Amino acid sequence: MKITFLGHASFLIEIENIKIIVDPFISRNPLAKDINLAALNADFILVTHAHEDHMADVEIIAKASDAIVVSNFEIVSYFEKLGIKGHPMNHGGTWEFDFGKVTYTNAVHSSSFPDGSYGGNPGGFLIQAKHKNMYIAGDTSLTMDMKLIPLKAKLDVAILPVGDNFTMGVDDAIIASDFLECSKIIGCHFDTFGYIEINHEEAIKKFYDKNKDLMLLKIGEDIQL
Q1: CA dihedral defined by 84, 86, 91, 97, rounded to 10 degrees?
Q2: What is the dihedral of CA 191, 196, 202, 204, to 10 degrees?
Q3: pLDDT tens string 155-178
């Protein structure tokens, strides 16, 4: 499994020969200007919720690569009206895809389309692939529901927001990692704009002091699991 950070909460996950893009917000993110949007191909696009900073580039990527959008019912319906294929899910539901088993998990946040209309309830994803398990929290506060994740799968990595203000911050993300029983964390939803700028060294040290590994990847940087 290869995970590449595309900025903000966007990732490219490669599982064998299948490419999955999560929450694409690239063309409107000045920090991601070096990412070539036209070169991104996807088999699947996972969308946690309807806010623009998580789905701004779904349409262009999906239409260019004929990708399937996986999200809640409302978001999938929205994109199906644009001629994009989708697979709708809702909280607690699980489906077996070509790359592994996906469960749509709870998130505590809000969710609306750019025009203000209802975007369904926000969520996250538990991915149980053939050899690795990962959890993508989406935009969320710390929630006791995270304690349910390790009852379903032993995680190899978790992607958690750490920018605070709109989501949980570093201190709550440490507690979340305890709930998840996962010590390897990839941070997201930080530095994109003023409200969520963080001190990288301080954040990494806080995790380190708890015997945990916080990875704050540079945009375009990847890790292999």
Answers
A1: -140
A2: -70
A3: 999 999 999 999 999 999 999 999
Query: Closest Cα to residue 124, out of 7, 9, 41?
Result: 9
Determine the Cα–Cα distance for residues 193 and 78; give it in Å rounded to an integer: 27
Which pTM was predicted?
0.97
- What pLDDT digit, counting tens, does each position of 54-113 carry? 999 999 999 999 999 999 999 999 999 999 999 999 999 999 999 999 999 999 999 999
In the chain, alpha helices (H): 52-55, 58-65, 73-80, 149-152, 170-180, 200-209
Distance CA(190)–CA(214), nearest Å, equals: 13
Q: How many domains does the chain have?
A: 1
Do 170 and 162 contact (CB within 8 A), yes or no? yes
CATH code for the domain of 169: 3.60.15.10
CA atoms within 13 A on the CB side of 218: 2
Look up the domain containing 121 and give its range: 2-224
